[in-house]
User: Fold these one by one.
Assistant:
Number 1:
Amino acid sequence: MVREKDMIIEAFTREEGRVSFFAPGIRHVSSRRAGHLETLMETNLVLVSSKRGNSLSEARVIKTFPMLRTDYDRLEVVYDIVKTLRHYTGEGQGDTKLYDVVINCLTCANESKETPRFLREIVAVQLLRFLGALPDLYSCTHCRKRLKANDFSFKSHERGFWCSDCGEEKDEIMTAVVKIIRIFLAGNEKIFKLQISDGVLQRLRQISLELLRAQGGVAK
Ligand SMILES: [Zn+2]
């Protein structure tokens, strides 16, 4: 039974992905745990599972990302990331690399003077990798031959890259798009300093959305 002052909270965790839990008495003004459960914070949680679900036993803040709560532009970027994660990850599906990339993106959005425009795409690429929905980045999905620079394109229905020998028109910008996806996959800190042209970013955004939408999503 959930008491009136209990709250159901949802968290995205490193070990178990999306997790929801009861936080007994969290609405109580004097609750010492309340401050540790704000949105957009990284928190250490100790949960206890029982027949009625998980409930919170301890919470301790690791990172607060204060700028995300005061700057609307930053908040918007990060909120988009949270929404995407919530839509495409199921409860109990953890992925440490995806989690770490999300935290790095939040840290970047919080600390950088100007938030890179491609944080959501960084997360989308890791999410596609996690979902097993990322096309082969090295060979033609159709004939399996190695992709040559400036000699392939993205084939939407097949959700993959096809070489020109397989009858697809060359789409030279795809070479740059695939290069960026490979760099995003590596996921080190350098990705935040990349310079990406509008044209490349636009195509990357379009492809990653198409591939994600094909997954359907799990959250209601
Ligand atoms: Zn081919």
Number 2:
Amino acid sequence: MEKIWSCLMLVLASLCAVHMKPLDDERHRALIRSGYVHYPGAGYYRLAKKPASWGEGRRNCQQEGAILSIVNSPSEAGILKALYLSEGLTKLEKYENDDISEISRDSNSTENPPIPTSGTIHIGFHDLFVEGEYLTVRGEPIIATGFVRWKPGYPVSDDLHNCGAFDTNQFILDIPCELELPYVCEISEL
Ligand SMILES: [Ca+2]
Ligand SMILES: [Ca+2]
């Protein structure tokens, strides 16, 4: 009886294996078609070049079954940087606009570091609930991500700076959520 049972399990397992593979392949192809880049061992990443607010970026990623990227290691930080540079986004004129100078003026203090205008993208952390308590979009404390490398001068930790960003020199920073920046969506390895 035991033997029959284990045979049955074996048959089921191999059936699953046969069926899983094509599904993964199909999803893989669909992701590549929709602009994701596959970094084997890490996952799938898509740089959305059209600048958006942090909230908009988060929603857009969710709508495609992804998350606004959470940086978990120096090597993942390297992936984000490579992705950014490969898209030719070394300079972004698009969001050097009036809105930003408005924000800079309103931040009314010379202590705050300047609002970044290039080389910066939204990523998945924030302190929208409790000032200074940084959580990922999955609700974990930022310390659990494994990559907490603040850009010099950051975190600013005030009510204006509540959303997470990534500087392509491989730092994280807190910036105003309304600031329109490119962002990266991330999907775990299939
Ligand atoms: Ca990640
Ligand atoms: Ca804050």
